What we know:
Blueprint: H1 7-24, E1 32-39, H2 48-60, E2 65-71, E3 74-79, H3 85-96, E4 100-107, H4 112-115, E5 123-124, H5 126-129, E6 131-138, H6 140-161, E7 168-171, E8 175-180, H7 183-196, E9 200-207, E10 210-217, H8 219-244, E11 250-254, E12 258-264, H9 269-277, E13 281-286, E14 297-302, E15 309-313, E16 318-319, E17 323-330, E18 336-342, H10 344-356, E19 361-378, E20 381-399, E21 407-410, H11 416-428, E22 435-443, H12 445-499, E23 502-503, H13 505-534, H14 539-571, H15 575-606
Parallel strand pairs: 5-23, 14-20
Antiparallel strand pairs: 1-3, 1-4, 2-3, 6-12, 6-22, 7-8, 8-10, 9-10, 11-12, 13-16, 13-19, 14-15, 17-18, 18-21, 19-20
Amino acid sequence: xLNRYPLWKYLLILLVLVVGVLYALPNLYPAxxxxxISGASGSSAVTAADMKQAREALDDAGIxxxxxxxxxxxxxxxxxxxxxxxxARDVISDTLGQNFVAALNLADSTPGWLRAIxxxxxxxxxxxxxxxxxxxxxxxxxxxxxxxxxxxxxxxxTLRNERIRYRNNEVGDQSIHFTFASEDDxxxxxxxxxxxxDNFTFQQSQEGRGHILTMTLTQQAVSDIQDYAVNQNLxxxxxxxxxxxVSEPLVQRQGPSRIVVELPGIQDTAEAKRVxxxxxNLEFRLEAASDTPADEQESFKFRNDPSRSAALxxxxxxxxxxxxxASTSFDQNGRPQVNINLDGAGGSKMTQVSRDNIGRNxxxxxxxxxxxxxxxMEDGQQVEKRDTYTTRRIISLATIQSTLGNQFRITGxxxxxxxxxxxxxxRSGSLAAPIYFAQERTIGPSLGQQNIDRGILxxxxxxxxLLIFMVxxxxxxxxxxxxALTINLALLIAAMSLLGATLTLPGIAxxxxxxxxxxxxxxxxxxxxxxxxxxxxxxxxxxxxxxDRAFTSILDxxxxxxxxxxxxxxxxxxxxxxxxxxxxxxIITSVFTGVVxxxxxxxxxxxxxxxxxxxx
Length: 616
């Protein structure tokens, strides 16, 4: 019989609809602004007494608390007001002290019975939730310079161990130069370096009485160093973002030398920028002895007293890369300090050097890579130029009184905040190359909520206009199309929630476009039915032919659009990908609801009935 589905097909459609509604429901429960409390170390566990103390402090500060919970030694306090989230975190941090970490969070408010089946709301992008967007530029020249400095230090140590005398050593843009007094020393050094450093090309020259060995990085080596710098910085930035306690952050590479960092929900943008963009690192060096040659030492000023300076050896014992963990505390005089644990290689090197130099001073050098902008005139126009520079200051110079191991302390810091930031940077790792802020964009929570409200309004207005148009144009069949349209929207939201897709403003545009495309399928079907009726076909035959013969056109139109969406997803980034994801899922749900669901409703309502006239 025409226009009748078998029972199993109706049941299958019903199952899809029930599952879709269940997984779309969590989006009716928006996330609560919250503060998450955890121990600063594995030995610090949050207790019920700590949670009570935190809640009392919030009550005293006039901050409304919705609820609090304690699970797996981690506390979560949900707040009534978004605007009080940052203040609540500061109040909790001051109340509980340094043994605990308070981080901003957005707590899921989905009911437990929905979470039990794995149902969660859609993730919201930066433009909807609010937060900060950074575009970071990796300094490739500095990455090469840092690698050359490390190699030059190792080469000098090798020459000293082999008792090969050299006059001078310089590091260029992509090369290292050694000057020797005799050609014999140069030949020995070249043979030695060729065995250990296969990423250099070697060239000999002579200047006056000096014999110069120039070692230049190969192009492959330069490319590898730059690629490593970006990848290592990616890892370090992800670690730093994790330390900030941000939920669902985005840290990804963009192009050959840029990194995008998006931190949804972050309100303290100053702290985020300070931590993400910080390029602080440490170097441990011995103080130069009185008989140290001038070309083997460098002079640095003290960080807390620029009028003082000290001469240090050029050779670096270890850097902050060898720090496995770091924490903050206070010394016996109440001044902040950082407690450091070194990894195996770093501990061995520190033990060896300190054992051989008891009674000698060792300095901790604090290194920061910075940039400043200045305005210059070019071609009659004023443009901004960015200059990069590096500061190196001594924060500690102390006598080695005994052999040092894997654990020791750094003092000389100005404030507890500085100590906390330094320990965070050391825990998360140092950057392989300096980074600079090429672009910065901040979206406040209120603007994010405004984007959500306007996005929802656009969907509602678009849907309302479509519903009215379909009823006016197609009468009863317009009601069927409207029911399919509503189901399509629910299935699209469920699919995005189930797949963990992130909803952005362009994604909302994709939803609006999907609604139009879903109605377009019904328009093709209904116009085809009208043509069949004008051709004197029976009502049931017209319905049957309308759905069957319009299907090919609907499929072709949606496949071409899906191909474009796939291309956008493949080559696009950020907002473009968000639009492509929503559009792709919308195409699939539109075909299903426009063809299968609407036909099932038609079959159930009028299928197989002897109709004389069709209200279309």
